[in-house]
Amino acid sequence: MRPEPSVILLTTLIGVGQGLFLAIFTAHSLALFDLVPAPDGRAFDVAGSAIALLLTGAGLIASFFHLGRPERAWRTITRWRTSWLSREVIVLPAFMFAVLLYALVQWSGWRPVLAELPGGAVIDLATLLGLAAALIAFALFLCTAMIYACLPFLREWHSPLTPINFLLQGCASGFTLAA
Predict the structure, then answer these.
(1) Is the pLDDT of residue 118 over 90?
(2) Is 10 left (phi over 0), alpha (psi -120 to 50) or beta?
(3) What single-letter DSSP state applies at residue 11?
(4) pLDDT category, 1, cuts 50, 70, 90?
(5) What does the H/E/C string look like for 70-105?
(6) Average pLDDT of the segment spanning 21-46
């Protein structure tokens, strides 16, 4: 198997962006329960989210280089019921939008309290948006991995372990970048 360089860039950049955001939100969540000290100010969350957006945006741009007819790319959305590629095309912008909202809420400091947990932890708008973006990131890992896992002629990837591999590789690279 010799994948196109644009496919390698696409999967790598998007995976790192997803993993980076998951690292940022993990730190946010752990600080919420006083398990780790909260990062200084909002700079960590905002800068990390911006880098995650840049990485996923660069991966999206890389995807256009392996399309046979880029002018027809919008049509991929219409097959979302049967195509993992169509689902990825829908979920990737949703992930980017959720990360953007998370970053904007963190940057603006507008964090209304939505709920308070019994232990005293506060669930605010940023936490809710971060949770939504994290769930969408997991869905995006699944969509991207299943594009390759469902192809029987790619024996190296036709495995139920492919989604786990994508998740672990993306998180490893994203957490490393966050560190």
Answers:
(1) no
(2) alpha
(3) H
(4) low
(5) HHHHHHHHHHCCCCHHHHHHHHHHHHHHHHHHHHHH
(6) 88
